[in-house]
Amino acid sequence: MEEVRCRVRCSGHMHTITLTESGALVLHDHPDLITERVLGALGGELPRCLAILEAWKQKDRAPLPPALRPAFDKRMKKWRQRLRNKYNCDPLDTPIFARTVEKATTLAYATLGKCAYKRQEWPGNTDRIRIGKPDICGMAVTQKKTIITVTIPPVWLARVYRRGLAVVDGWFVLDVLAEDEKRYLVLAGRQGKEFEIYPSQAWVNRSADGNWHLRWVWESTTPQ
Fold first, then answer.
1. Residue 217 pLDDT > 70, yes or no?
2. How far, in Å, are 79, 172, 178, 205, 209 from residue 182 at the CA level?
3. Neighbours of 12 (CB within 10 A)
4. Which residue has the higher pLDDT, 216 or 118?
5. How far apart are the first and last CA of the chain?
6. E-strand spans in the chain?
7. Average pLDDT value for the chain
8. CA distance 53 to 63
9. What is the band of 224 on the pLDDT scale with cuts at 50, 70, 90?
10. Spatial separation of the C-alpha atoms in residues 149 and 104, rounded to whole Å
11. How confident is the model at residue 1 (pLDDT cuts 50, 70, 90)?
12. Which residues fall within 8 angstroms of residue 79, CB to CB, at 6 or more apart?
């Protein structure tokens, strides 16, 4: 992919965006993306440069400036070709680890849809599932769009989902940290202010009704 550089009006100024040869977008005039995302999550308007970055990641052509659209079209053509190749191949030719990760990702999407996290009351909300160190993040990128990003470990399928712990009391369970004969210590996604979601440790116990129930660790120093 050839490097593309363009200028866009953002927050009352002309900002520079570069599409690198590796396919990454670089926002030259936004050195602190984390802080700007947090401000957006708190209800502030997302700067246009960040909105373009999100559109690129979400494969949404409409918000992109004209200079980036030819590269976007080429990217999408390659992505569709990879999908066709993926579904036309013999599943037994795919390594077991890759098949496990794919299955875990699919199940995690379905599980996240059952959770009770706060979202914008508009269409266009987005969930993302990744594989890596357990983490969860929720934010409002615009006044009409909420994004929840979940990172699950490669062992999530066996260690969490198959134990029936994927969603407990409406919370998404990222990983099991410890266990004994009566309870599990888990890392789960907790609702914060507005649309914020963050990872927090919790105890999961099976109650007399036979169902799992979750209690955040900091609420009690002596788990029951």
1. yes
2. 47, 20, 11, 7, 15
3. 5
4. 216
5. 57
6. 4-10, 13-19, 25-27, 126-131, 135-142, 145-152, 167-168, 171-179, 183-191, 197-206, 212-216
7. 84
8. 9
9. very low
10. 15
11. low
12. 59
Torsion angle of the four alpha carbons 57, 62, 64, 66, in this order, in degrees rounded to the nearest 10: 140
Distance from C-alpha of 182 to C-alpha of 160, rounded to nearest angstrom:
16
pTM for this model (two decimals): 0.56
Per the CB < 8 A criterion, the answer to whether 18 and 5 are in contact is yes
Instruction: List alpha helices for the chain, DSSP H.
Output: 33-41, 48-57, 69-88, 96-112, 156-159
Give yes or no for residue 136 having a pLDDT over 90. Answer: yes
User: Which residues does 166 contact at the CB level (< 8 Å), separation at least 6?
Assistant: 107, 108, 111, 160, 172, 173
Residue 210 clears pLDDT 90, i.e. is over it = no
* Tokens coding 145: 């769009």
What does the pLDDT read at residue 221? 39
